[in-house]
Amino acid sequence: MAKAVRGRRRKTVARKVTAPAKRKQATTGMTSDKFRALVNNLSAQELDELLKAATARKNEEVASAKASFLDEVRAKAASLGMSLADLVSLGAGKLAPKGGGKTGLAAKFRNPNTGETWSGRGRPAKWLTDLEAKGRKRKEFAV
Question: Largest alpha-carbon pair distance within the chain?
Answer without folding.
Answer: 88
